[in-house]
Amino acid sequence: SKYVLGILGATGAVGKETLDILDERKFPLESLRLFASKRSAGEVLSCQGREWKVEELTPETSFAGIDFALISATDAISREYGARLSAAGILVIDDSGVFRMEDDVPLVVPEVNRQALRSMPRRIVSIPNCTTTPLVMALKPLQEAAGIKRVVVTTFQSVSGTGAAAMDELMNQTRNLMAFREAKAEVYPYQIAFNLLPHIGSFNEGGDCSEEIKIMRETRKILEAPALRLTATTVRVPVLRCHSEAINVELERPLKPHDARAALAEMPGVLVYDDPSKKLYPMPLDATGKDDVFVGRIREDESTANGLNLWVVSDNLRKGAALNAVQIAECLTEH
Ligand code: 2RA
């Protein structure tokens, strides 16, 4: 059978990636309804060889006939329309953080915890933050092979995580600096070109930022490990696409790098890309546009018992958002 999909936030970076992925994966589409703000309404986007006109999302919009709604817009849109659409019997796949930590909303990466899709009392399923997904994709096989005691992760997040305006800001600042002109910072608090910002989201009184809190809470929920000891530092870097993560894991039982590499290689959706002797390690330029989570620099951490270091790179617009959402829709349409 075929399905009617609604995409809220269709003209954003994730929305456009979603259309490409629906095309590539030949998702069984009966039709599409694309929604965006007034500013983008009227745009025509193509998917599966057909043209689709973007509609303005308004409180009067009728969603009749839609089977699945993919939301990747603002938290306010997710809060208002996620509730409204699911109440209308539409299955909502939400990319925001609004519902992720609710007990009656599954938080899903299909390769890691697809079983969580069995219970969706509110007809809402959340996809994780784009830094959480690659982390749990790498941790799951290690958790199964040797148990996990503690994780320390530092992220290097591209500006596409903030959106198209941030990508423009990085490019414009770089051009201006190359021409010895002033580089204005509007999207970010400071210049991002040739700089690093250890600040994503908002700070709490303890000095953690909301992006770090999200990674810690979401990872524990997805791995069903509420007591997992985990700490994160999130950094915005002057890269256009892909998030990278330096991950240090303290396992419960011994696991040699060779065996860790084998466990990771067996994980669907993970590509082990790791041969320092040939200068082979994951980089954003390798993972951009790709579906896999790239894992490399797998090596023992001799500073602790059963310690392991690894380096993970994944496309934050694809597996970090759009691909994960489409894969969930595929899971829900399989009979
Ligand atoms: C970011 N993870 O990178 C957040 C939202 N995509 O900005």
Looking at this protein, list some descriptive labels.
binds 3-amino-D-alanine, Rossmann fold, 9 helices, globular, methionine biosynthesis, 335 residues, Dihydrodipicolinate Reductase, domain 2, six-stranded mixed β-sheet, alpha/beta, 2 domains, seven-stranded mixed β-sheet
* Element order: H for helix, E for strand: EHEEEEHEHEHEHHEEHEHEEH
Overall structural domain count:
2
The biggest sheet, with number of strands, parallel, antiparallel or mixed sense and barrel status, is: 7 strands, mixed
Rounded to an integer in angstroms, the radius of gyration calculated over CA atoms is: 20 Å
- What's the pLDDT, averaged over the residues? 97
At CATH level 3, the topology of the largest domain is: Dihydrodipicolinate Reductase, domain 2
Unreliable residue runs: none
For the terminal residues, how far apart are their CA atoms? 10 Å
Oligomer: single chain
Give the tally of β-strands.
13
Question: Any guess at the CATH architecture of the largest domain?
Answer: 2-Layer Sandwich
Overall shape? globular
Please identify which CATH superfamily of the largest domain we are dealing with: Dihydrodipicolinate Reductase, domain 2
Strand order of the largest sheet: 3-4-2-1-5-6-7
Structural class: alpha/beta
Count of alpha and pi helical runs? 9
| The CATH class of the largest domain | Alpha Beta
**Helix share bin:** 25-40%
Strand content: 15-25%
Distinct small molecules: 3-amino-D-alanine
